[in-house]
């Protein structure tokens, strides 16, 4: 029998500190209205000192495990651009703190596409019989990478984590993931980047400028690529699944920017009202954005069992990816 990865639990975790636009605007020669009109963001959450990416990942993982009604899995994957340390990976730390010492655990690095790459990787583990259950977490403390004086990036990103539990099941049952589409184009590596800190800079013999330690993004080019790649990838998985755009009940794209989400929906011919969006409340949380949006929509009762879901993401690398599923009947008492 073909083994599919079936979504059976969701969870999320946000740090307690909400940062409204007004708090950032004063130091950026900007305004609340400008930030909201350009990005669709009203606030985001920043982790406090003493908090690490693993702390948020553990919180989201605990809630996803509770939602699934299980306490252990066979593998833990953490998609992140902001690991606790360059070495070791964050996932083994998270697995141990969740009480799963000895469990396979590793990080997935594909920036904002990381969660979709993580889903595909988990689906492969399940299909190959390596694992029966996998916990996939997207977790970020992107505030640690931001230049507080750069209004093109400082107002966009936030911190948070989201997670799902996948189990082995039948490809035809609700919650089964797939097909998938994944892609990359490394020729665009400099469009979304942190220039300093890696082997290329360290072995160059040149000390980095202060600004090169921060996240940088070429906004106009990223906007164009994000719409092009997400819409194209989404079309590919819709065709593979035998779905039409009008069959999609909910489009859950990476929460990059509200205008990007709207453009992707328009390009696909999906009404904007079918987009699941929480960017106004949490900002762009990179690899955490899709699972955070899923958990929030589930908690608020927006997702109905049997609803056809299209997930699509775009991130640095450049990377992109998409998948589909029919939303399962999750037990709300465990949320």
Automatic annotation (TrEMBL):
One GO cellular component term = cytoplasm
Report the Pfam families cross-referenced here: ACP_syn_III, ACP_syn_III_C
Q: Where is the Beta-ketoacyl-[acyl-carrier-protein] synthase III N-terminal domain?
A: 106-186
Pathway per the UniProt entry: Lipid metabolism; fatty acid biosynthesis
Q: Where is the active site?
A: 112, 254, 284
Keywords of the record:
Acyltransferase, Cytoplasm, Fatty acid biosynthesis, Fatty acid metabolism, Lipid biosynthesis, Lipid metabolism, Multifunctional enzyme, Transferase
* Function, in words: Catalyzes the condensation reaction of fatty acid synthesis by the addition to an acyl acceptor of two carbons from malonyl-ACP. Catalyzes the first condensation reaction which initiates fatty acid synthesis and may therefore play a role in governing the total rate of fatty acid production. Possesses both acetoacetyl-ACP synthase and acetyl transacylase activities. Its substrate specificity determines the biosynthesis of branched-chain and/or straight-chain of fatty acids.
Name by which UniProt lists this protein? Beta-ketoacyl-[acyl-carrier-protein] synthase III
Organism of this sequence: Streptomyces paludis
Lineage here is: Bacteria, Bacillati, Actinomycetota, Actinomycetes, Kitasatosporales
What gene is behind this protein? fabH
